[in-house]
Design a protein that fits this description.
Length: 873
């Protein structure tokens, strides 16, 4: 067998090591047993990477003003137009908008070009929507953007608090590690999240707090720790300043905290008691903390607790910001944020001068640039005239996404570097640059616990796709900065970055890769900069060497629900989709779990809004509307709803969550408040519904609403609309796409139509129309698309939408690794009397792959046993 290529997963900031080998007709991806992040484990997204390597959706050539071009033409156009914009409006009329999915080397190149050679610090990134509050909190408390601990601390802790983190879905391998540690040593787990997520599967206590109330909960906890004698006086005396002021600001009784958070006093007391009594505590936090107009203070409240109790820098302790993207950390290290310079330096005159000398920079930026939300507002009002977007999809993922789209539409120069050919953002690009994708990319990434790993290529770059650093360096050369961008490959860039981190450092800055500067890049094994744990010696990177506790007080979210918008809209992620679905949207198996956007809603609110489970609803805020399928669940608090962030205009009509979110930001970090928007719900009641299964995704002409997904064997579109004209337009469009009249069955009395297009004997498309959602065996039908329908019987079965006996549908996929659906699991539990996850694994394989579905399997087991108890009673 060929040697495996060792590389790193392109999804979440867990940063799992992978081994990739050629396998029958494709690539086999397995967890790398030698990588410290995952030690061989994988989650469903990592395991399915082999399914996402096709070239069908890729951008393979540069495109300039709508015309395919070669690289010299594209580079000359980009450089010439950037230079013209700067000549007209000065350096700050240019901006980069980058991404935590770029490699460190790509990021370094873009940052150097803008801040050292073009003279602007307008270099911001989607990390502004993601990690900015954690960065600001760390810098305020520690004097540096440092995550002090390592993953092993989750396994060594006796109490793990998961605050605003859905670890089970978003960092599944860390979740697996924590679950195992809990089974082995009884770790206590507390989840702080307004929703009951799958993460609560391992929780001893779930505090379903009112959205945005974290500071109240944590300040109450700090007060309690002070009263209970749980502060570490020795540590704070020598290593911390600001304790008294922070404590004064935090003063809050248990009943006050419980009332502000909207949870039972007893539960709050239990949490406080456990925390005060458990020296080995880790607090993991993520977007429930960061994405808030009080994000930096929420982070501050967490850091205050760990500093006051001395729970930092030692095994099994620490505040732990888990990063979202695979290289969010690398981006921070190179300084890819508008308020940082490079290598964890800021815009103080000494740092500006140091970096100027190191780069030999002719036009050093001397002050901070525009942060993401402000940057796009500056594009909208014409202050920024030339924008280069790389590795991110802001038309979808930024708040006020419609304003972002208007800004892009009026900007004189939009350059977009992406690996795929069509995204909501690319549609606004004057110049499109094809980037190499995972599997072809070559460079380094840094994960949540400061482990630097290599992403190595195992595929050649297709057609004209090139590395992002190469595109930046080529434009820099065309602008006349050749000598400073003369790298031959990513190894040269990494070495330069490592040297800069060590340049005039001498222990004054946390980030120092000096030892790696001369390393063998190709053979570079994963390593943690700063060592396993930082701050163990009580020395911090502030001017006085002490950590700073900052007084923080509770402030509610920027907007409160009122009579017009009585609900609170929360947004976030699904287990098997990644962001705007440009990669995960290629895998049919990853659509199995949640095939379309849903709005999760409490039963009381569903009744109040006249919404039924499985129906469609219109979700409205003062900025915009989306349509989603109603999922009634008591996992939501009454008055609060949740929608996913993944669907774009490419995958659905009216499902872009970003269009609903106002651009309120945290005053320190500039991070937008993406999770707390006043909203209302109304039924969406079209007069007809359709289900279309086809060999591709045709234009859904005539439909008012539609959503697409890939299934095993076919592309599936659900549609809906009102009136005859829409239905006629839909049929006309399909007739044009699939060549003429279908074989069809009409029942005008019941409003039902079924049409199948057979091309060369094979089923090209089949459409079901009805006044309700067509109830047909869609999984089985998907398997019929592309098949030879030789007999009249075959054709009739397809038009009937029914599988032959014994070949029924599995229902929504629970286990993505083995494609096991909910119906099959429920049947097996019932018929074979299965009682444990292990039983299900033995019978069906489900849950024995990556383990991401274990929480759901347990839920199915417990609802089956409730069913049995009810039947007995
Ligand atoms: N499957 C999957 N995994 C991913 C990603 C993905 O797209 N898909 N994206 C990656 C990225 S970039 C990121 S940043 C991470 C994000 O990882 P997470 O932060 O874990 O994910 P989210 O779903 O955004 O939000 C987490 C939780 O915050 C809760 N929350 C909302 N408001 C509050 C509040 O006021 N207080 C508290 N305590 N909680 C609140 C939400 O209910 C939600 O369950 O995931 C990474 N991993
Ligand atoms: N309402 C709401 N909005 C949110 C969030 C939320 O929780 N709620 N979460 C926010 C967070 S935390 C994040 S991180 C963002 C994510 O949002 P985005 O960054 O906009 O989402 P992605 O789909 O990851 O976009 C990445 C794009 O880069 C391309 N790409 C991937 N790799 C490369 C590469 O190496 N080079 C180039 N040139 N292109 C590449 C992909 O094809 C894709 O088009 O969304 C944010 N928006
Ligand atoms: S947990 Fe899953 S998505 Fe995250 S890095 Fe590991 S395999 Fe990739
Ligand atoms: Mo993120």
């Amino acid at each position: 067998m060929a040697d495996a290529v060792r590389t790193t997963c392109p999804y979440c900031g867990t940063g799992c090591g992978l081994r990739v080998r050629p396998a029958a007709g494709g690539w086999q991806v397995t967890g790398d047993p030698d990588h410290p992040a995952n030690v061989g484990r994988l989650c469903s997204k990592g395991a399915m990477l082999g399914e996402t390597l096709g070239l069908e959706s890729r951008l393979l050539h540069p495109v300039v003003d709508g015309k395919q071009a070669d690289w010299p033409t594209a580079i000359a156009a980009a450089a010439g137009r950037i230079a013209a914009a700067i000549a007209r409006g000065g350096p700050d009329s240019f901006a980069f908008y980058l991404s935590g999915q770029l490699l460190t080397e790509d990021y370094y190149a873009a940052n150097k070009l803008a801040k050292g050679f073009l003279g602007t610090a307008n270099v911001d990134t989607n990390s502004r929507l993601c990690m900015a509050s954690a960065v600001a909190g760390h810098r305020r408390a520690f004097g540096s953007d440092t995550v002090p601990g390592c993953y092993e601390d989750l396994e060594l802790a006796d109490l793990v608090v998961l605050a605003g983190s859905n670890l089970a879905w978003c960092h599944p391998v860390l979740f697996q590690r924590l679950r195992k540690a809990r089974e082995e040593r009884g770790t206590r787990v507390v989840v702080v999240d307004p929703r009951r997520t799958d993460t609560c599967d391992i929780a001893d206590l779930h505090l379903a707090i009112r959205p945005g109330s974290d500071v109240a909960l944590l300040n109450g906890l700090l007060s309690h720790c002070a009263d209970a004698g749980a502060l570490d006086g020795e540590f704070t005396r020598w290593h911390v300043t600001g304790l008294d002021d922070a404590l004064r600001a935090a003063r809050m009784s248990v009943p006050e905290a419980a009332a502000l958070c909207g949870v039972e006093e007893g539960a709050v007391r239990r949490f406080y008691g456990w925390f005060a009594a458990t020296p080995r505590t880790v607090t993991v936090f993520s977007q429930g903390i960061n994405q808030s107009s009080a994000g930096t203070d929420k982070v501050g409240a967490i850091l205050n607790l760990h500093l006051a109790t001395g729970r930092i820098g030692r095994p099994g302790t620490g505040p732990f910001s888990v990063t979202g993207q695979p290289n969010a950390m690398g981006g921070r290290e190179v300084g890819g944020l508008a308020n940082q310079l490079a290598a964890h330096m800021g815009f103080d005159p000494a740092s500006v001068d140091r970096v100027r000398r190191f780069w030999g920079a002719p036009a050093m930026a001397t002050r901070e640039g525009l942060k993401a939300v402000d940057l796009f507002r500056a594009v909208a009002d014409g202050r920024v005239q030339a924008l280069w977007i790389m590795g991110t999809n802001p038309a979808v993922s930024l708040p006020e996404a419609d304003l972002v789209r208007r800004a892009l539409a009026r900007c004189p120069l939009v350059i977009v570097s992406d690996c795929v050919a069509d995204t909501d953002t690319l549609r606004f690009a004057h110049i499109r640059l094809p980037a190499v994708a995972w599997g072809e990319k070559n460079g380094t990434v840094t994960n949540s616990d400061r482990t630097v790993s290599r992403q190595r290529p195992f595929l050649p770059p297709p057609a004209l796709a090139k590395p992002d650093w190469w595109a930046v360096a080529s434009v820099a050369k065309a602008l006349g900065f050749g000598p400073a961008f003369a790298w031959e490959g990513p190894a040269d860039i990494f070495a330069e970055h490592a040297r800069l981190s060590a340049f005039e450092n001498g222990g004054s800055r946390d980030f120092d890769l000096g030892d790696a500067a001369g390393a063998d890049y190709d053979a570079l094994a994963p390593f943690q900069w700063g060592g396993r744990r930082m701050f163990g010696d009580g020395r911090f990177f502030t001017a006085d060497g002490r950590a700073h506790m900052v007084p923080v007080t509770y402030r509610p979210p920027a907007e409160a629900p009122g009579p017009d918008f009585p609900l609170r809209l929360n947004t976030g992620r699904y287990r098997d989709q990644w962001h705007t679905m440009t990669r995960t949207g290629l895998s049919s198996r990853l659509f199995g779990h949640r095939p379309e956007p849903m709005v999760d809603i409490h039963p009381e609110d569903a009744r109040g809004s006249r919404l039924a489970d499985g129906g469609l609803a219109r979700v409205e805020t003062r900025l915009g509307t989306m349509v989603a399928r109603v999922a009634v669940t008591d996992g939501q608090r009454p008055g609060e709803i949740f929608v996913p962030i993944h669907w774009t205009d490419r995958f659905a009509a009216r499902a872009v969550a970003g269009r609903l979110i106002p651009g309120h930001t945290d005053p320190v970090s500039g991070q937008p408040e993406s999770k707390h928007v006043p909203a209302r719900l109304a039924p969406f009641a079209p007069s007809w519904f359709g289900l279309l299964l086809a060999r591709d995704f045709p234009e859904p002409d005539g439909a008012e609403w539609w959503v697409r997904r890939r299934a095993e064997g076919a592309c599936v579109t659900e549609l809906a609309g009102s009136g005859h004209a829409g239905r006629r337009a839909l049929l006309a469009g399909l007739e044009a796409a699939y060549g003429g009249e279908p074989i069809q069955v009409f029942d005008p009395g019941r409003g039902i139509a079924r049409c199948a297009w057979i091309v060369d004997g094979r089923l090209a498309a089949v459409l079901f129309l009805a006044p309700h959602r067509p109830g047909v065996a869609s999984q089985w039908l998907a398997g019929q698309v592309g098949r030879d329908l030789a007999t009249a019987e075959d054709r009739l079965a397809v038009l009937a939408g029914k599988a032959p006996a014994g070949r029924g549908d599995d229902g929504p996929i629970v286990c993505a690794c083995f494609s096991v659906g909910v119906a099959r699991i429920e049947r097996a539990i019932r018929e074979r009397a299965l009682v444990s996850v292990a039983d299900i694994g033995g019978a069906l394989g489900a849950g024995t792959g990556c383990g991401s579905c274990v929480p759901e399997l347990r839920r199915l087991l417990s609802s089956a046993s409730e069913g049995r108890v009810a039947a007995l009673g």
